Amino acid sequence: MISFLNPLLLFGVLGAVIPVIIHLINKKKAISHKFAAIDFILQTNKRISVKFKLRQLILLILRASLLAFLAMALARPFVKNFIGGTPEKDVPTSNVIIVDDSYSMQYSDNHESFFMSAKTAAMEIINNLTKNDDTAVITCSSLGSQVLPELDYDKKNLLNFIEQAQPGFATTHITPALDAAIEVLTSAKASIKRIFLLTDLTRNGWDIDWFKSGNEKLRSHVSNIHIIDLSEGRELKNIAITHIEPQINVSERSAESTIKVIVSNFTPTRIKNLLAQVFLDQKKVAQGFFNIDTNASETKEFYFSVEKGKGHTGWVEISEDSLNVDNKRYFAMNTSNKLDALLIDGDPKTNIYESETFYLEKALNPGREHASSIKPTICSIHEVKNFDFANFDIVFLCNVETLPLEKIHELDKFVKEGGSVIFSLGNKVDSNYYNNSFGTLLPHRLHTARTFSSDSPLSEEQPLHLKATEPIHPALRILSETNMSTLSSVKFYRVFYVDPAPLGNCKTILSFSDDTPALIERQVDRGRCVLFTSSIDRDWTDMPVKPFFLPLMQQLCRFLTGNIAEEIQSETLAMHEWQSPCPEDINSLEITNPEGTKTVLQPQVINNEKSFLCNETNFPGIYTVTVDGKPHPQFTQKFPVNVETTESNLDKISQKELAALMGGTNLTITTSPVSEGSEVLMGEAKKTLWGTLLFLTICILFVESFVSRK
Question: Which fold has domain 572-642?
Fold first, then answer.
């Protein structure tokens, strides 16, 4: 059956009468002039007249056909396809419309976005269904958290759902959407079951492995799949910021920041002089230009100063293109104030390398090589009377044999009022003295010291090693996978064992390889205490020379003093979870998204640990964290949410590949724009004829010009 996308233009066929009218008007009757000599050529004139009339008739037909074919070509005829599950008008159908709402659908090339075209197409499909057809609409974002819709006969409800739909900021998930559509159609009663997929056909949304089992499900439960390519088969071009990595270098006087920016060119042409700008706290602080080869990336570093003692947020952006969502990436950083730490050295040495606090001091403040926000002060047992614990944020007792009684009381008061203390042991420590003097602060009572002197694999007394607890304590989360893997390489030749029963609310941060506690934390009123059951120098262990020692000591100090927030906040991807440990005294947390919407979180138990979990990361931007409407020192004040950059590569999956993946499934793919009519959207257009007619028109024009010159 032949139909027309622009049937009104068929009136142009009437133009075929124009050559006929012209032919009739120009037809002249010859004037006869009789004379005797003319008779002998009459027979010749009759033959010439026949040829002339035939030529004129041919020209008339050609010119009339020229106008008629041109009019029909402009009307854009096509042949409808009623094969592959496309029903007759009176046959009820069940339909699932899948709308791709990933962020690549916000692509707009001097037209409306693909997503707006998808909404228009979905509405037109629904309007062309009959009252006996039931339909469900599925979007691709967050399918795991969606309740699958039921098939509905009410067009008004369906149209209202589509009208309210908005493009998301997640990546494409086509195959999970197909799974969901199959589940919806499995319970449908209609004999004809169809899936309409409205997408831009970007490759990253198609899980090729899914079709190994999904292909059979499609053939068993779906009569026809009709894919509408909203990109109209075009090659899509995009430039994106695919990675940013800020760093802070804090010194006594200032804080300098470096941000590494990677921009990727997903176009077939080289990009020249692409402007990239860095904004910090709403002000532009740096800019530069990128020159990127085809399908390649370029990295640049930008430098700027930041104010110390406060948090900062910002973003990096490049010039606009057809997909603006990935042209901006956000970051957050915290140049925290100095933490003051008092290191009481219970075993000072003339050779500073042998002192109890040498490695600890270098870890807390490495100097020129690595600026730190922690300022250590060292004193001996004899000098401790000159220091007021209240002037410090944290106190280390490093192999301290005894402490004056008044300083013990002062230390107890210091912790209960919110201070922190870390006990590290050694050869001068007497377990009975510690249990009696520091019993209100120790997480466990000290028992006995045990020596593991041999490093031979044949010995039963091999050195102990470290391992992280499950779940991993917040103080360890700063450690990289490499550093975590080196925990087991540490050797301990002497340790203190502790009584199994804890003395309060305790958590084990690190354990030894024999499962005895190595690093234990205890909450005491408003403060915290930590017990390290070995030495903090190299007398009993080689831990101080391991790569993880520096970040562990610094993060432990930040955790104990309520400054757990890292200097550089790791980004959260849009539509992914944000998680943070929950302190004992916090019952709720507020997250405010970039649009100003606030979400109140309650603590959850995740892997036996209380944590806050936020799933409402729907928009890229800066999110604010507050407790009772105010920032809290134990939480990062702000964290960035960015889009996942796999969606930035707009490489498309070909129709040939799709046909191969869905082999045996009734599949139609339309690349025509939405304006070409409802028949195309319903998958009824098998072949267009206007191109053939236009070619015939050109051929007729050529023949007409040839005949007219004869």
Answer: Immunoglobulin-like (2.60.40)
Helix H or strand E segment including 550 = helix 549-560
Cα separation, 118 vs 323, whole angstroms: 16
| 71-105 pLDDT, tens digit each | 777 776 766 554 444 555 568 899 999 999 999 99
Tell me which amino acid residue 79 is: V
Alpha-carbon span 242 to 261, nearest angstrom:
8
Residue among 426, 399, 430, 422 nearest 495 (CA): 426
For 202, which DSSP code? Answer: B
- Which residues on neighbouring strands pair with residue 579, listed in sequence order? 613
Which DSSP helix (H) or strand (E) runs through 334?
strand 328-335
Report pTM: 0.66
H or E stretch covering 260: strand 255-266
Q: Number of helices and strands (H, E) in the chain?
A: 14, 33
Q: Where are the alpha helices (DSSP H) in 478-528?
A: 481-485
Report the phi/psi class of residue 607: left, alpha or beta, with left for phi > 0 and alpha for psi in -120 to 50.
left
Residue-by-residue DSSP string for 518-549? EEEEEEETTEEEEEESS-SSSSSBSGGGSTTH
CATH number belonging to domain 93-235+650-683: 3.40.50.410
CA distance linking residue 482 with residue 485, whole number of Å = 5
CA distance 537 to 544: 6
Q: Is residue 529 within 8 Å of residue 415, measured between CB atoms?
A: yes
Amino acid at 236: L
Tell me: cis bond preceding 594? Omega within 30 of 0 counts. no
CA 107 to chain centre: 16
Residue 147 CA to residue 138 CA, distance in Å, equals: 10
The mean pLDDT of 457-464, rounded to a whole number, is 70
∠ CA 252-258-263, rounded to 5°: 170
Torsions phi, psi for 592 (to 5 deg)? -110, 120
Beta strands 255-266 and 77-80: pairing type? unpaired
Looking at the domain covering 339-560, what would its CATH class be?
Answer: alpha beta
Within this chain, domains 93-235+650-683 and 339-560 share the same CATH topology: yes
Domain ranges of the chain: 2-26+42-80+691-708, 93-235+650-683, 339-560, 572-642
Please state which of the ranges 355-359, 382-386, 679-683 shows the lowest mean pLDDT.
679-683
Helix axis angle, 42-74 to 17-26, nearest 10°: 150
Question: Helix, strand, or coil here: 221?
Answer: helix
Residue 456 pLDDT: 54
| Strand bridging mode 444-451 / 394-398 | unpaired
Q: What are phi and psi of 193, to 5 degrees?
A: -125, 120
Give the side-chain half-sphere CA count within 13 A for 63.
Answer: 17
d(CA 352, CA 359): 10
d(CA 532, CA 572) in angstroms, rounded, equals 34
Residue 464: Cβ-neighbour burial (10 angstroms; 0-12, 13-18, 19+)? buried
